[in-house]
Amino acid sequence: MIKKLLIANRGEIALRIIRAAKELGIRTVAVYSEADRASLHVRFADEAVCIGPAQGKLSYLNIPSIIAAADVTGADAIHPGYGFLAENATFAEICHDCGITFVGPTPDAIVRMGNKSIAKDTMRAAGVPVVPGSDGIVPTIEDARRIAEEVGYPLMIKAVAGGGGKGMRYVETPAELDRAYATARGEAEASFGNGDIYIEKFIEEPRHIEIQVFADKFGNVVHLNERECSIQRRHQKLIEEAPSPIMTPELRKAMGDASVKGAASVDYVGAGTIEYLVDKHRNFYFMEMNTRIQVEHPVTEQSSAVDLIREQLLVASGEKLTLQQRDPLMHSIECRINAEDPYHDFRPSPGVIQSLNFPGGPGVRVDSHIYQGYVIPPYYDSMVAKLITFAPTRDGAIAKMRRALDEFVIEGIQTTIPFHRKMMDNPDFIAGTFDTKYLDTHDWKA
């Protein structure tokens, strides 16, 4: 078993990992930037080490500082959380070379799944359906024009090393292609240091549905059903739920079987998520694989009665997988509470939390690192909490979410709570009749 775990992350996910580790008797080490000195993950870890200034590239992305912190504290394992270095194969390789257990997949699996073009080829070879598009990267605008004619419009231009909607452009007609191609490449280069892009056919009325997979070091792989992630703003998820309102037993089996096959094809280890687009005819297409724990993992935990972080730590320690394949037991919904003003195009709203009340009661969970008096720094992602509700039915989970949002008070900053409260009364959301473009085509304030 891991003896001492360093958490190479911040905020609510660092606190979540600390809790799971402590329940397993594992000592914990928090790392923090100067801006996060007062964060709760620093307070509740057994030890804490400052690794640099506020800027992420000088602290949470600073591999030498993190490895040095592990060495100084005697940590024998590192959990990367999500974001930052979670899908950095070089970091995973350095951990291995230093004799530190990396809580995640092998560097090879991260490389193969982290590059979207290679991942698509890998999944195609494993028999997983993929979206029609370019065969690898598209190096020139001439190539882009030729492939666009073959694939057909509308289409999507995507960054090979992309994420969070960066380097992604929707192209409806040939007249838009040249500018979209140049813009996507420039944005990808600026965001990831890699301007390579590829082209995919745009799936009309798409649902964003992902499958949670889990594997151990002995070749055992299971899936833990699906999550519905179609309520998005600029390709960033805002509401997730499990199971999906459009799921059927036949589609769940097909997507689950494909996901297990895909994970096994790269000798995957640990928690991973395979993301799909599902069209209006319930055809599904591989989109990408996230080789880490997801922000929205609590909806799987609550719908399937598992502790995914605990399982990550056990598998990383060399234990055999104990998770059982089964249908969802509950319906769970997660609302991401961001420090953003939803009435002004979701602009960031850092500042001091002057008053705070978390909701509670049966079927309500809050994952957060904030407290009254806490200062939301402007340097990182704007999410300040995740509100999760769960009940035997979807209607029940929605009713609990309405009640919980009414109880959730954060004063001093603007948050997305009003947006979520509106969505819980939205007839289309209640009916489950929405797709990834819903917020682009509908006024949520109406």
Which helices and strands occur, and which strands form pairs?
Blueprint: E1 4-7, H1 11-23, E2 27-33, H2 40-44, E3 47-52, H3 63-73, E4 77-79, H4 89-97, E5 101-102, H5 107-114, H6 116-125, H7 141-151, E6 155-159, E7 169-171, H8 177-192, E8 197-201, E9 207-215, E10 221-233, E11 236-242, H9 249-265, E12 270-278, E13 284-290, H10 297-304, H11 308-316, E14 331-338, E15 340-341, E16 347-348, E17 351-352, E18 355-357, E19 364-368, E20 375-376, E21 383-391, H12 394-407, E22 409-411, H13 417-423, H14 427-431, H15 438-441
Parallel strand pairs: 1-2, 1-4, 2-3, 4-5
Antiparallel strand pairs: 6-7, 6-8, 9-10, 9-12, 10-11, 11-14, 12-13, 14-21, 15-16, 17-20, 18-22, 19-21
Task: Please explain how this structure is put together.
It is a single chain. With 446 residues, this protein is of the alpha+beta class. The protein folds into three domains: 4-103, Rossmann fold; 132-201, 2-Layer Sandwich (Dna Ligase, domain 1); 207-441, ATP-grasp fold, B domain (D-amino Acid Aminotransferase, Chain A, domain 1). It has 15 helices and 22 strands. The protein has helices spanning 11-23, 40-44, 63-73, 89-97, 107-114, 116-125, 141-151, 177-192, 249-265, 297-304, 308-316, 394-407, 417-423, 427-431, 438-441; strands at 4-7, 27-33, 47-52, 77-79, 101-102, 155-159, 169-171, 197-201, 207-215, 221-233, 236-242, 270-278, 284-290, 331-338, 340-341, 347-348, 351-352, 355-357, 364-368, 375-376, 383-391, 409-411. The strands form six sheets. It has an eight-stranded antiparallel beta sheet with strand order 13-12-9-10-11-14-21-19, sandwiched between helices. Strands 3-2-1-4-5 form a five-stranded parallel beta sheet. A three-stranded antiparallel beta sheet has the order 7-6-8, with helices on one face. The longest helix has 17 residues, at 249-265. It is globular and about 60 Å long. The model has no long low-confidence stretch (mean pLDDT 95).
